[in-house]
Batch of 3 targets.
Target 1
Amino acid sequence: MILTVTLNAALDVTYFVDRLVPHSSHRVDDIHERAGGKGINVSRVLNALGRPTTVTGLAGGTTGTALRAELHEAGLRDELVPIAGDSRRTVTIVSREDGDATVFNQTGPVVQPADWTDFGTRYARLVRFADVVVLSGSLPPGLPPDAYAQLIAVAAAAGAATVLDTSGPALLAALSAGPDVVKPNAAELAAVTGCQDIAAAAAELRALGARAVVASRGPDGLHALTAQGSWRATPPEQLSGNPTGAGDACVAALAAGLAAGAPWPDTLREAVALSAAAVPCPVAGDFDAETYHRLRTTVPVEEIHDAHPDR
Amino acid sequence: MILTVTLNAALDVTYFVDRLVPHSSHRVDDIHERAGGKGINVSRVLNALGRPTTVTGLAGGTTGTALRAELHEAGLRDELVPIAGDSRRTVTIVSREDGDATVFNQTGPVVQPADWTDFGTRYARLVRFADVVVLSGSLPPGLPPDAYAQLIAVAAAAGAATVLDTSGPALLAALSAGPDVVKPNAAELAAVTGCQDIAAAAAELRALGARAVVASRGPDGLHALTAQGSWRATPPEQLSGNPTGAGDACVAALAAGLAAGAPWPDTLREAVALSAAAVPCPVAGDFDAETYHRLRTTVPVEEIHDAHPDR
């Protein structure tokens, strides 16, 4: 089972408008609401692939109730832990004219110490059933900066592998706990290391404790630096649409590969195919099955021979 | 007491962002939520002026619960009638850079026949205590097109005067019931009559049954056509800010003038001053007290002698 952790779960609300015109009024007659947050999106992709997955994390208030109701409707196993505050909403305005998305992300409620204790208890129980734990997204206010390091240590002690997808101080503070895979995008990697060279920056994260680094480079695919080697995987065709959710689809593939013990080139091929298949879909957590099946056998994966740190 | 009716009450959510950039992601750390809908805004203005007012209308679901909690906090008397559906939200993005607002209005839930029957019972009771009834805003889906005509007839039978602020078919269908004042803006007046000339269009609404027409012309003030005469009232200075809520402040002044039996020129002076004082405030239902007090004695009101229909 792949356990996903979403500490800042959200109700994702999408407003469809004909055209977004700043400083004007828009009538919205088409609204979609669903549970969101990066870990939940990852579980949604895994569920669609038929991989057993469980959602945990923190959710509360009337917004928490609404997002959990939607998780149940979607058939996802919900082990979210209730918190005192009201979960955040994200509002995405999708313009029908060009399919483009404008996103407003609320910060999220302040997590109380008692909430974090409750979560620790539930997480320690769930992690015993997990092959892989996915830790995704920003830390809500109120959590200790090393929250992900604590969760990685508990997973490691229980024998579960970990995939971490976060950025900034939350990423840096987690590295010493030795996550099995970290997946920053190129901008996050440069921001956290201060280094624009993707290979050098990935090597730095490994030096700080990450066992493997898979950096996403948007339409240019993935750059992976692992104990087994380094690879570059590139989508064989460019897809137009909305890149929101491509990162979560990538993480789903990395977690599935880790759970199956697949060789890195196979996992990277899946990850690029699944990310690319998320682009034509306007909502994170969805992917286009036909695109995925077309690409998963054709993504070129190239080994980088001058960048093996460990052999 | 002035009774305001909001059949499509909302939770108005305002997101403050540094700058609205279409097709990008925005972090929102400053969120304000309050009860909204045009009638509720009118009551808020009346309450700030110290005029007794009661809020009624329709609200339901978790959004209805949230908006009613905020009404109580604001000290407004709440006689909203619960409905089966979940009330709508409106989302307004205010850019800190220029104070400009971009608005997303949800349509609102479908009102069930039983909800409308419940409302009729409550309204018939409340209207007996009202000097003036304010009917504001669009009709939610599910209501009969002549909903406002029905409510105006009940008010008239109970001896209460009515102020109607709506547009399109809801306005047209209400005229035959003889509302005491209708307050379209210039664009709504032109749309409903097909006539660009404001005086001729106002005369047409009177011919269809409205006892008085007060048309708002944005920064150019008000044009009033009544049984007692016709007037033009113009703000003596232009204010910059957000015109959202200026119409509701205007309606509050019209209702207060009607309740007090004030002469039309005094009421129009108040209405222009209060509308203008709403412009510097980013949120509907608020007005700047200092601006209001400065303008209420200085708004020029000019009688139009060639446009008296009845004398």
Target 2
Amino acid sequence: MACSCSSVPPQWRHLLSNALQANQHLKHSRYLQLATVRANGSPANRTIVFRGFVEGTDKLQFTTDSRSQKIHEIKFCPKGEICYYFTDTWEQFRIHGLLEIIGKSETDMNKKLIREKAWFSSSSKSRMQFAGPHPGLPVVASQDDHEPELDSEQGPVDCFCVVTLEPEEVDYVHLKDNKRWVYTRSKKENEEAYFWFEIELTP
Amino acid sequence: MACSCSSVPPQWRHLLSNALQANQHLKHSRYLQLATVRANGSPANRTIVFRGFVEGTDKLQFTTDSRSQKIHEIKFCPKGEICYYFTDTWEQFRIHGLLEIIGKSETDMNKKLIREKAWFSSSSKSRMQFAGPHPGLPVVASQDDHEPELDSEQGPVDCFCVVTLEPEEVDYVHLKDNKRWVYTRSKKENEEAYFWFEIELTP
């Protein structure tokens, strides 16, 4: 059982960073599963791509289409839990926290910048998806198959969103070693800064 | 858009069966992520192992420990969604449905049998986990490190549970082909039997 103050990166960041490095030769090493809650209270789950951390924070970053179901779900319930399993090193990170959407109507300058940076650092193939037809609608026979065109200098299209996850709890399991650690973000009374409380649990 | 009657296996079963076969050389090909809802209404997500279908049904089968958090979550909200991503063939199955727990106090004879069969078809290493200390409790320094002992003839230990997922909707995406199909279980008015309604959607 131990505490770490907020000015140093929490221990789980080191573990995640090591896992990313050790698995980076795998195409799917950036794929993880995000669980959200639907408006009817039942869960949803899908694979998304980890796009790194928001600079200077512990927030995980993803991109998505404003027309996708997960946007509605996040608006209904802003809590999410990702499950990130690394297939080569047998490590699992379950990260629970607060989801935030940064969309086209964002007014905060820093967040607008995060969205723009995320757009320009996406591949052209990835950007093209956002210029395509509405995801989740029926495919009709007459549908226009022509590739949409996008100027490479053009900023984010309207439906391009960044989703961030601000971790509150990280549950780490190392299957090979049969070890489990849980990291919980906490605040001391009358103090502003967060710290991470860590504890070893039976797997 | 098409319908299939309930007497033939639904199309998604063929797709899943093919994906399992095409990825079977990978150790993690039976690993998937199950999302549930916590008692506070926020989502939970973790990796579990697919243990095949309950004989003669479309129910997916898993095993778990009655002392794990997911049991409490399923009791609170019996809906679940698995996300099953096949890393070699780039296929994703999101399967949403009703979760059921088959535990030691089960009285239905068929379900008792499912639990016993699941126990005896588990590896001895896997069985040993259920004889170990309470999962999710703090590790204490004085903890007994001795391996628990289990007679190989012995039936399921008390905390051994089977969890089944009865699919209501299957959302299938083939990333390489950029194709998406959604299969929804439906019932016609005044009819007992289910059928599967299928529709192609934009990914």
Target 3
Amino acid sequence: MTPERLARINSMLDKRQIDLTVCMEMVHKSNNLAAVLRTADAVGLSQIHAVWPEQGYYVSRNTSGGSSMWVDLKTHTTTTSAIENLRGQGMQILATNLSDSAVDFREIDYTKPTAILMGNEKDGISDEALALADQDIIIPMEGMVQSLNVSVATALILYEAQLQRKKAGLYEQRTIDQDTCQRLLFEGGHP
Amino acid sequence: MTPERLARINSMLDKRQIDLTVCMEMVHKSNNLAAVLRTADAVGLSQIHAVWPEQGYYVSRNTSGGSSMWVDLKTHTTTTSAIENLRGQGMQILATNLSDSAVDFREIDYTKPTAILMGNEKDGISDEALALADQDIIIPMEGMVQSLNVSVATALILYEAQLQRKKAGLYEQRTIDQDTCQRLLFEGGHP
Ligand SMILES: C[S@@+](CC[C@H](N)C(=O)[O-])C[C@H]1O[C@@H](n2cnc3c(N)ncnc32)[C@H](O)[C@@H]1O
Ligand SMILES: C[S@@+](CC[C@H](N)C(=O)[O-])C[C@H]1O[C@@H](n2cnc3c(N)ncnc32)[C@H](O)[C@@H]1O
């Protein structure tokens, strides 16, 4: 590995936000998942979650811009088990939902440990997820179309989190564990 | 047309931002273009532009969530003619570009008449566009991946514009012309 690449990987590791994540509930289009992984890397997530009942959840390395190498994708077979896992990490659980009771996504404090639940392309978020979440959030829509593309919605929320966390200095202190660092330095050095 | 639908369309028309647009330079994946159209409608754009040298630039009505009905897509055969058109409308021209000289996208004043140039999936923005633009802008990247998906990048910038324009009260005064209103009321009433 060149010294430049080592420095680049180390600088990325310094900025990883281990207490910020998203969970994709049955999001099935691989181009959407790939775009989410790419955004996740760009905002400094080290892991994202997906609820997917079957084997074989696949992301093309190509459309993800190589981000699948840098962001772990953890799958869960049910929404309940996914949310239990996230709550076990002390995270507030936000459900994106196109309802009148949802609050504007920019009103949330994302400097807290946070997991954002994103819904399926066709049916949106499940009733189960809504029941278990702490808060519904919505991105304002000024036009005729009801919803945004799911990878677009994910990015808007994650970049709001990035802005708040940047202001709070959370990109200036390494929080990621030593084992993950070693693994990524090893894998990233021998791609 | 029901009174509810008429009211819905009129409220959308009230909020249209005729002096804010994007121009997609050779963006060729139809799912990306569809996602951009959907976001454009959500932020209140009445028209977007594309540089496309050939006939037949197509957006699936399905993946665009029906937004192609509400947002005009104007194509240009060259980047130069597209930018001339936009400048002729008095717009500042911003080029998204992954360079060191680009300024953070959140530092721009989007309450001014603004057109944002987005680049092709593989090659990014053209040298021609860079040369003609007033300013390069970039979305900060904290990770390893070099770039975001183009529809994601477009949405992040448009929602920053939405935020600024909302604060400035620009969603509270109808600016769209009467002819376009009549056409959209007619077409939207008989979909
Ligand atoms: C295409 S939308 C699903 C639309 C579905 N028909 C519904 O009623 O929810 C897919 C996912 O994108 C996210 N999403 C899309 N637009 C959103 C918005 N304006 N606010 C919050 N989340 C949104 C949500 O996670 C949603 O479940
Ligand atoms: C996939 S990127 C193109 C990457 C290309 N390899 C390059 O060097 O520009 C497609 C388009 O998305 C937009 N884009 C992606 N990431 C961006 C970022 N971080 N800042 C600004 N624009 C971005 C730009 O319009 C870019 O031309």
